[in-house]
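F.,

This is the one I mentioned.
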């Protein structure tokens, strides 16, 4: 059963026996009063805990924003897989997208994201990220005020999008594939995303390597993650390496490091 962790550390509801509804839905088609209040509170807590205060250096955020800027191009169509509540934050690294789609298995996560996007709150870490990337607030607001699609779907299984037939120029998977139970499921999720890339498109992802403490605390062991695994997936999907950077995380009891990677499809 999906349990709500007491502390919003992992940023997800672990769903080992797959109780959550995995059918594709648009967030706007789900009546708000049917959403789970406790799940909403969990994702609000996660957003406040990690994406509210000042930006902490040495946690990998600079490298992720840089990878998005350097390899993300100027996407006509951007889809963010396992978006959680954070797509607007990562949008700071993405150069002038024309269309944005945020996807997550849990509608409550997208509900929190959509409400935050619709508001005008600009937390300190957003201001810090704007300063780091040199992006202007008006440029940020351009992306914020655009219409976005919010899709409830399982991003670890083969997927298609009813709103996009010709593929995405940019697919981001930030903290997504590492939620897979093991390397086979990781490979399946990677292949599913790679299949949706338009010619010349970019797939950019981040895999967080958990500490032993966190593995034991939450019970999700993704120590199978490695640059070699991602490289194997990319090779199978005929994608070209743009970047694969391991980044050490200082002083975090739950995460030891992360891998920031970017791959591209040929024209
Ligand atoms: C670790 S958070 C990462 C969120 C965000 N990308 C970020 O950078 O903060 C993981 C997110 O994946 C979502 N999730 C978990 N399993 C999923 C699945 N099978 N398909 C899509 N999203 C999933 C969770 O609901 C959660 O919002």
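My design for it:
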């Amino acid at each position: 059963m999906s349990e709500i962790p007491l502390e919003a550390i992992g940023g997800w509801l672990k769903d080992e026996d797959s109780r959550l509804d995995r059918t594709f839905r648009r967030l706007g088609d789900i009546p708000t009063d049917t959403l789970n209040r406790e799940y909403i509170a969990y994702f609000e807590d996660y957003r406040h805990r990690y994406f509210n205060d000042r930006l902490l250096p040495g946690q990998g955020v600079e490298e992720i924003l840089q990878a998005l800027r350097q390899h993300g191009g100027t996407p006509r169509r951007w889809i963010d897989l396992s978006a959680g509540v954070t797509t607007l934050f990562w949008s700071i690294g993405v150069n002038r997208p024309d269309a944005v789609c945020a996807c997550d298995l849990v509608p409550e996560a997208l509900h929190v994201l959509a409400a935050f996007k619709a508001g005008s709150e600009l937390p300190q870490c957003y201001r810090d990220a704007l300063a780091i990337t040199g992006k202007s607030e008006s440029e940020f607001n351009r992306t914020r005020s655009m219409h976005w699609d919010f899709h409830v779907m399982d991003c670890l299984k083969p997927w298609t999008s009813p709103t996009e037939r010709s593929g995405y120029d940019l697919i981001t998977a930030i903290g997504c594939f590492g939620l897979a139970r093991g390397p086979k499921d990781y490979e399946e999720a990677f292949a599913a995303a790679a299949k949706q890339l338009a010619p010349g498109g970019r797939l950019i992802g981040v895999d967080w390597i958990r500490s032993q403490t966190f593995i034991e605390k939450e019970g999700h062991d993704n120590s199978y993650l490695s640059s070699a695994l991602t490289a194997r997936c990319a090779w199978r999907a005929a994608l070209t390496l743009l970047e694969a950077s391991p980044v050490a995380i200082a002083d975090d009891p739950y995460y030891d490091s992360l891998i920031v990677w970017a791959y591209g499809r040929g024209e």
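The domain at 25-264 is CATH 3.40.50.150 (Rossmann fold).

Talk soon.
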